[in-house]
Amino acid sequence: MTPHAPSHSASPSLPMPSSLLDLAPVIPVVVVSDAADAVPLARALVAGGLPAIEVTLRTPAALDAIRAIAGEVPDAVVGAGTMLTPEQVKESVAAGARFLVSPGWTDVLLEAMRGSGVPFLPGVSTTSEVVALLERGVREMKFFPAQAAGGTAYLKSLAGPLPQARFCPTGGIGLASAPDYLALPNVGCVGGTWMLPEDAIAAKDWARIEELAREAAALSADGTSR
């Protein structure tokens, strides 16, 4: 997947690396209920060292949130998650999403994401799904729901027969378990929400979110600061 920035009014100043999985050890998974929170929330995450931000399409405010972050937080690499339809792919990229994430995939959805011009992480939870994506030329995937689908033991088992596949595990991962995932050779980063407590967002306590983001950004495979 060759990253390309979509056409929108803002020109992102942060270049994409060769792999989306190499931006940071953690990709925050953000649910935005009020689009007015998007920019200060994104600024707090970026200031804490987490530039890749996945905004899930679970609320009516999601596309406006992506648009606001893309236009006002140039050091953020904002993406769209919970991608389910080709129409959502088009809307998300038009809003300024620089990467796409889906909980699962079909050939129709995969082709829409492939044609979007931005990096994408299709979701998998079984070996057959991984093999099917490798067959289609996709090597970077979201492993979801990570804990429920087998966690680190499952991913470790995949590394031997399928070393070419790399993952961003998401689902049930927290600060304590993230280093166990990051220690695996086939894991590039993890996705999570633990740095986004609901009470902090409700209170607009962006300083607390920045502090939690900084803690997450410092994670390494052995649990120590990088």
From TrEMBL:
Q: What is its EC number?
A: 4.1.2.14
Q: A single GO molecular function, which one?
A: 2-dehydro-3-deoxy-phosphogluconate aldolase activity
Q: In which pathway does it act?
A: Carbohydrate acid metabolism; 2-dehydro-3-deoxy-D-gluconate degradation; D-glyceraldehyde 3-phosphate and pyruvate from 2-dehydro-3-deoxy-D-gluconate: step 2/2
**Per the record, what are the reactions this protein catalyses?**
2-dehydro-3-deoxy-6-phospho-D-gluconate = D-glyceraldehyde 3-phosphate + pyruvate
Q: Which UniProt keywords apply?
A: Carbohydrate metabolism, Lyase, Schiff base
Q: Which family does it belong to?
A: Belongs to the KHG/KDPG aldolase family.
Classification via NCBIfam families:
eda, PRK05718.1
**What quaternary structure, including any partners, is listed in this protein's UniProt entry?**
Homotrimer.
What is the protein named? 2-dehydro-3-deoxy-phosphogluconate aldolase
Task: Give the source species.
Answer: Streptomyces xiangluensis
